[in-house]
Amino acid sequence: MPFPKDIGFGNYTQGIFQGIEETSYRLVVQSHENINVDTLPQIIEHYAGVIFYPINKGSDLELLYSLYLNHVPTVILDKEYEGIDFTTIVSDNKQGGYEATKYLLESGLEKIGFVSSQPIMDISTVRERYLGYLKALHDAGNKDKTLYQGKSGQTTEQFIDKIVASVKKKEIEGLVVENDIIAISLINSLKQAGISIPEEISIVGFDNIQASELIEPKLTTVAQNFNQMGYLACQKLIEQIEKPYPQSDTIVVAVDFIERGTTKKGRNE
């Protein structure tokens, strides 16, 4: 896991524990800084298999391919890798982006933007959410597309300041944000700028992390079923360990839209 102690990170481990509950396996959670190509011999010697959450597709490619070449049973969480034949467990990110955008459209908004703090092509999950956003606009016959996209050398604060300036100019009415962490940072900056949420701007996040219910107003978001994803990852890993030559697969887990106070329809939440 990239951030095993981060409260903003999905609780996959609960599902993994459920998956190994009646087996002889045990779970060891490691952070990314302890796992790399140099530690591959130790991984092969001490672990039956690996459940891996990539930070991004580029930085972890060599390690994942080394696991593949050494026939280490591996399941990938959250992101898909072309060319590496591992089972992958992902949320239905495209449907989540679609539902979030459709909801804002049905709230009467027309100028809806998508927010990604990193280039869309860098992270498959965010790209899928963006495609869902585009599909919802297409289905509604809305051609007013706006992508707020971070770029190299730009800080998160600079990126958010640019969006706040756009909201001040009334260039946008609603935002579908890549994840709750960026959405919450954006909400805080908008409030500091004196912008009323959801009266002046509606915001939908993605992940349903704990903090999404603690912020004021509470964040409307798309919930991933982290527990189910962890459980399925565990099951599929055990299949790889115990069955010769198991087939790889991509398993898509459904998401849920949660209406709260950062959107006009849910402002009483």
UniProtKB/TrEMBL annotation:
The keyword DNA-binding applies. InterPro entries: LacI/GalR-like_sensor, Peripla_BP_I. Transmembrane segments: none annotated. Keywords: DNA-binding, Transcription, Transcription regulation. The keyword Methyltransferase does not apply. Residues 102-263 form the Transcriptional regulator LacI/GalR-like sensor domain. Signal peptide: none annotated. This is Substrate-binding domain-containing protein. It comes from Vagococcus proximus.
